[in-house]
Amino acid sequence: MDRIELQKLRELPIEGVAERLGLTVKHHKCLCPFHNDHHASLSFKVSKNTYRCFVCGASGGPIDLVMRYLNKDFRDACHWLADEHNVIISDKKDTKGSDPSVSFDASRYERFFERPWLSDEARRFLYDERMLDPRVVSWCRLTSWRDRQQVPWLQIPYYDRDFKLIGIQNRNLIKGALPRFRFPQGSECTIYNLPVLNLLKPGEKLFITEGCSDCWAMLSAGHKAIAIPSATLLKRKDAELIRALTSALQITIGMYPDCDEPGERLFLQLKEVLPNLVHYQLPPGNKDFSDYYVSIKRKEADHG
Ligand SMILES: [Zn+2]
User: Fold this and answer.
1) How far is the CA of 38 from the centre of ligand 1 (A)?
2) Which of 179, 199, 244, 275 has the most CB within a 10 Å radius?
């Protein structure tokens, strides 16, 4: 990790990080998880991006909060934060001896997606856990592989509108293992599922989701969807790209923001660039669209 990457993690909004950890933040305060608290003693200072408990004295920034709350060391806490917020950080051992200016060599990877292969772990993840439609998995050309340490990975290709491979995201299929994501050098994982734009008919609806998982759930539910990689770090460039690509299409664009502060903020950020963006509300108790989709599929399965 270099200094700029660490800086990005330190700038992740502290209240959003707390919510991703499962804490309930209200009026810049929450119950302190580090002592037996009944009075919301922990408060957040948004201007400094820090937290402090007035009873037990716990304090720090986003990385400290994760280290302490999840009982992780510095490196693992950084990876957790990066994964949760889709910040791409380089692992020293992955990039050893490589030149950061080298661009993504699609020809090295294209063939993996011509004959996708799903390991047992990948099938479990995609079909048992996420209950996705096999047609979606095949449209997205998801495939899998094992690294030299026999760690199973799901391989997620990013294409431009013409199905040209522009990046790859690898997702660790071992639950809780870190790092959760890895990106080959030079991968441009910006907007996911751009080829779907070619299938849109006038008057149709396009959804924008946060991350690929929600996008697969949307597609499996019969919607058309693209994904942006991160709620906390929406790049102006990505938002502009969506506007440029969709402005000529006569479609409505909608979103079910994740039920947390970063989710709502992402909606507002996108709305600045896409003024007609429609806000859809997830039913209570669902943290994101994947959750909601899986709950519907389970109910359907129970009833027949
Ligand atoms: Zn405390």
Assistant:
1) 10
2) 179
Distance 87 CA to ligand 1 centre (A): 29
CA distances (Å), origin 208, targets 194, 214, 268, 281: 11, 9, 13, 13
| Alpha carbon distance 242, 276 (integer Å) | 13
Give the span between the Cα atoms of 5 and 93, in whole angstroms. 16
Sequence-distant (6+) residues with CB within 8 A of 71 are none
Could you give the CA distance from residue 150 to residue 165 in angstroms, rounded to a whole number? 26
17 C-alpha vs ligand 1 centroid, how far in Å?
Answer: 17
Band of residue 93 on the pLDDT scale cut at 50, 70, 90: very low
Query: Containing H/E element for 206?
Result: strand 205-210
Query: With bands split at pLDDT 50, 70 and 90, how would you rate the model's confidence at 82?
Result: confident
Ligand 1 centroid to Cα of residue 178, in Å, is: 28
Find out whether 18 and 25 touch, Cβ atoms under 8 Å: yes
Asked if 253 and 278 touch (Cβ cutoff 8 Å), the reply is: yes
Strand 252-255 relative to strand 50-53, pairing: unpaired
Which element (helix H / strand E) includes 292?
A: helix 289-302
pLDDT tens digits, 126-163: 999 999 999 999 999 999 999 888 899 999 999 999 99
- Reference 267, options 249, 280, 250; nearest CA is 280
